Batch of 4 targets.
Target 1
Amino acid sequence: MINDPLRTFVTVVEHKDLSRAAEELYLSNPNVSLQIQSLEEELGTKLVNYSPKHLELTQSGEIYYGYAKQMLLLQDKAQQEIKQLSNVVTGTLKVGASYTIGEYIMPFVVAEFAAQYPKVEIETSIANTEEIIQAVRADRLDIAFVEGEVNHSDIEIHPIMEDELILVVPNQHPLSRLPIVTAEHLQDQVWILRESGSGTRSFLNELIKEWGINVRKTYIFGSGQAVKQAVIAGLGIALVPRLIVRKELNAKELKSVRIKGKRLTRSFNLIGPKNHESSEAMEAFTEQLFALESTKIGQKRNG
C-alpha cells in the first residue's frame, strides 16, 4: 500500500482515472481521494476536477504535476544513492534470452551476478529471438540477450560477443566425407531447422536465399538441443552455433563440414528498451556483463 500523496497524485494524473490509479497503488478509491485532498489543503488550491467520465487538472494542478514528477525522480535518486553507501543492490531484475544464449551462456552470467549481488531477485525467460524482442518492447523484460539482427528503433542494442555458425552432418552422410563443401553440394538436401522467429532460422533463411539453394525437405524443431539430436539420428543436416555442439563434435557423434570461402558469424546482442529508466540492479548487471570476457564465459561453458 502506498501512503505518499505526491506519488498518488502523479499516478492519478498519468492514468487519468482514479480507479485505475487506486488499483496500481493497492489503495481504495476513497483513500486516493483523501490523499489528493490533503495535498490540495496543504497547497491551498484545487488540483483536480472530477467528472463521471474523465479527470481534468486545474491550472494549479498542471503546474504542480511538473514539479511533482521532478520531486519523485529526485527522491528515487536519493534513495538509490543512500543504498549505494552500503553497497547493497536490491530489487527485481527480469532477464530474457533467446534459446541458444539462454541454454548455454545465460546460466553462467546469472550465477556470476547472483554471487556478487545476492539480494537482487532475478526472473529469467527463455524463448525464440522474436518473442524475446517483443517482450522487451512490451516492457515485460528489463534486459535481454538475443542472437542476430534486431531491427526496431525503440530498442537499444549492444553487441557482446561473436557467434560462429557451422554446418553439421550425420557421421554416415555423404557430405561427411568431404573436407570442404560448396553451395552446389548443399542443393537438394534435407535440412533440420529451428522454428520461425528463431535467430538461427532467420540466418539460414537468408543464406539459402543468397546462395539459391533448393531444399528437398525440412524438419522443424523448437530448440537447438532437438536440432543437434535430429542430426545425430541421421535425419538431415543443419546450421548450428558452434558452441552448442562442441561436446558432440569432441565425442564424434556428428561431424562439422567447412563451407568453401565462408566463415559464418553473427553477434550476440544485449538489448533493452530505449530511453528506459535504469534501475540500480539493471545498471549493476550491465556493468558486470561488459566486464566479463567472452573467453571466460566460454571456458566455463566447456569445462
Note: The CA atoms of residues 90 and 119 lie 5 Å apart.
Target 2
Amino acid sequence: MTRNGHGRTRAVLAPLCAVLAAVTAVVAAGCSTAADGPQADGPRAAAPGKQRDLTYAEQITVERGEEILVGTCMRKHGFRYWTGLIASVADRQGHGYVLTDVAWAKRYGYGRELRERAERARLAHRNTAYARKLTERDLVRYNEALDGTLDKGVVKVELPTGGTVWTPRDGCRATAMKELYGDLPTWFRAKKTAQSLTALYAPDIVADPRFTRAVHAWAACMREAGHPYATPREIREKRPLITKGMNRDSARATEVRLAVAEATCATGTPLARTARTLERRLRSEKLRPYRDDIATFRRMSLTALARARDLQAGPATP
C-alpha cells in the first residue's frame, strides 16, 4: 500500500515505474498531463476560462487547501493536526528524463539537498511527533480518521496502462477531496487516468529516430564538456558511484557541475526541442480516447484551485 499525500491508493501494476524512468518525456516530469509539463508560473497560469494543467505554484495552493480541510476534519474527530508537508516549486522540478533548467541545476544540482531537507522535515514534523505519543488504540483511531477504512467501501479505477488503483471513500483525506473537487469518485478516476497516460506514448518518443539522433547530439556535447555519458539515464544510474568517497562539499560541487552540463547540453542541442515536438504529436495521436478524462481532470483541478484560494490563508491551527 502506498500513501501519496492525497488519500490512500493500492496499485496492481506492470513494472511501469522502471519504464517511465527511462522514457518519460524530457520536460514533463513524472506523469504530467500537460504538453510541456507543469510550469512554476507562466502565461498559461493567466489564461482565464481555459482548460489547462495547474502550475506548480497552483498545485501547492490546492494541496495547502486540502491540508486545511483535513485539519478541520481531524479536529472534529478529536485529534490535533497541523498542515502537512507540501513540496515546494523547486522540489517538483528536476525529475524528468533530462534536466533542462540551467538555473535550477546551478542551485540544486540533482536535488540532493532538497531530498535531505524534505526527509528532515518529515521526521521532525509535529504530526509525526503527535502520532508517536498516542496510545496504540488512539493511533488506530487517528489513522482511520485520517485515511479511512475499507468498511465504507472504496473507489476503484482500472488504469489505461493496466492494473487497478483504489482509495477509501471515507476518512478526512477523502472528505477534503470531496469538498475541494466536488465528487470523489469522478475526481479520483479522472486524476489517476490522466496521470497514467505518459506510458502510452513515452516509449514511442524514445524509439523515434529523431529522438535517438538528438540524444547522440546531447552525448557529443557532454563529451566536449568532459562528461562522457551516452544518455541522461546513464548519469542517473552512475551518479552514486561518481561521488562515492567524496565529502559533502565535493560531492555537491561535482553534482552541480554535471547537472549544469546536462541541462546546458539539453537546451543547446535538439534534445529538449525534439522531445517536446514528438510529445505533442504523440499525445495528439494516442490520447484521443482519453480526452474526456483529461478535460475532467483539468476542469476539476481548476475548480479546486478556486475553492482552495477561498479558504483561510495560512497553516491550519491545532
Note: The chain is about 60% helix and 5% strand.
Target 3
Amino acid sequence: MIPGVMMPGVDPPLPNRPVVGILHPGAMGAALGSALKARAGTVIWAAAGRSHATAKRAELADLVAVPDVTELARRSHLIVSICPPHAAGAVAEEVAAALAGRPDPPLYVDANAVAPATVHGVGALLGAQRVVDGAVIGPPAWEPGRTVLWLSGEAAPAVADLFAGSPFTARVLGPDLGSASALKACYALQTKALPTVWAALAEAADAYGVRDALHDQLARDGVDLTAHLNALRARAGSKAWRWAGEMDEAAATLSAVGVPDGFSRAAAEVYRRMADGSR
C-alpha cells in the first residue's frame, strides 16, 4: 500500500510525505526517526522536559524539535511512541489530551515492549483503527539486516510502507492489535528472562556459602558460570531498570492466556536488583 491511498477504517489516509512525531528519541527512537526521514516530510520530536542527551541524539539524527507534545500532536500525521514500558500508557494519555478536539487525528504507533492488553488500552483511548502495534526486535538500526519492526493493526501496512528501504525491516503480522506485542514478549522470554537464571542461582549459592563449589560443579559440565554472569551484566548494563518493566509486561502477556508467568516476574526482580546495585 502506498501512503496517500485510502485504508479501510482510516480516514484521511497518510499523505505522501507525512509529518512524523517521535516520542521520544532515545537510542531506538532516534534510529526510528532517522529511518523515516527518507519517506517523511519531516520528523519532529517534543523538546519540553527532555534531557540534553536526548536533544543531542535528536540533533545527530537530524530530527526537528518542537516545543512540546501538544505541538507535536497538532502537526503530526503519524506519531511513534518509543519509551520505557512502564510509561507507554502515560505517553498515550498525554497524546490523547493533546489531540482533544482535533478532527483528523494522526495514526499512532505504540512501539513499546508492552503486553497486548496495554496496546488494547491505547487503542481504546485513541481509536483502535488508528493505532498500530509495533515491536522492535534487534538493536537501534543504522544499517539494514539486523533489526525487524513487527507491526499489527488495521493501518499496519501503511506504516510498514514508510520503512521500505530503511535499516528497519518492517513486517506486518495482520490486522489485530496485540499480535506484535505478543510476539515481542514471547521472544523476550528467551533473550531476557532465561539468562537471569544465572544471577538467581549465583545469588542463592552465595547466600548458602556454596558459590565456589557450584562454580566447580558447573565447570565439570562445561558451563562457565562467571562468563554467563558477565555476559548478563554486559547486556543489561544501564538498561536493567528498563528490562524489569519489559519482563513485567511479558508476565502480563503470559498470564492473560493462562500460561505460568512466575519466571518472567522473577526475571523482572533480578533486573531491579541489578539496577539498584544489590546484584
Note: Residues 1-10 have pLDDT under 50 and may be disordered.
Target 4
Amino acid sequence: MAEGSHVAEKTIVLVHGGFVDGSGWEDVYTILTNSGYRVAIVQNPTLSLADDVAATKRVIHAQSCSVLLVGHSYGGVVITEAGTDPQVAGLVYIAAFAPDKGGSVSNLIQDPPPGAPVPPILPPQEGFLFLDQEKFAASFAADVDAKKAAFMAASQVPWGVEALEGAVSEPAWKTKPSWYLVATDDKMIPPPAQRFMSTRAGANVVETAGSHAIYVSQPAAVANLIERAAKELEESTH
C-alpha cells in the first residue's frame, strides 16, 4: 500500500538495556511491523559501551535508509553515543539513561535521591552484575505477567561493569531530535531522574504508568511513541 511504503522510509532500530536481550522487544516489533515499519533489533553483548555502540552501528549501517534509534534503560546510553552517526535521524528513549558528555550509568546512579528505590544489584561477580532473582520482578518488571517476569529473572544477561562505566563522548541528543517515555512506576531509574534527563535533552516527553520493563508490559504505549516520533520526523523532512 502507498501509505505503508511512506511509513517505511526509515528503519526503526531497537536497542535493549542491561540484564536482558533483544527478545523483550518482540511485541513492540510486532506492532510496528504490522503498521508497515521496517524494524531491526540490536543484540548488545553488554560487555562494554564501545562494544555495544559498535554492535548498534553495524545494524544501523546494514539499513538502506536513515534510522530512528530507540533505546531502553542502558540502551539509552548506547543510542546517545551511537546516535551521532549521520544515518541516525532521531532518538527515542524508553525509561532510559540519556547522559550528557562524559556521563555514564555509573555516575548517573551514584547519588540516588533520598527515598528512591535502590535496584537489587548484587555485588560484581568476575566483572559482571546481576539483579537478585528474588527481587527482579518487583524492581524491574512489576507489571509484567508473573511467569514472564520469573523467566526474565532466570534468563538474565550478565551486565559488564565496564559497560556501566562507559562514558559518552558526544551526546547525540544535542544535535538530533528526541522523544522520551517516562515510566512513572519505575523502580530502577527513578521517574524524577527520567524527567531531569528528558528535559535536559530537550525531548518530546510522554508519561505512562508502568514499570521499568514498560516495553514488555505495555508495548502499545511504547510503539505509539515510536510511531509518533517516526511520523514527526517524516513531516519535518517533507
Note: The chain has one domain: 2-115+157-236.
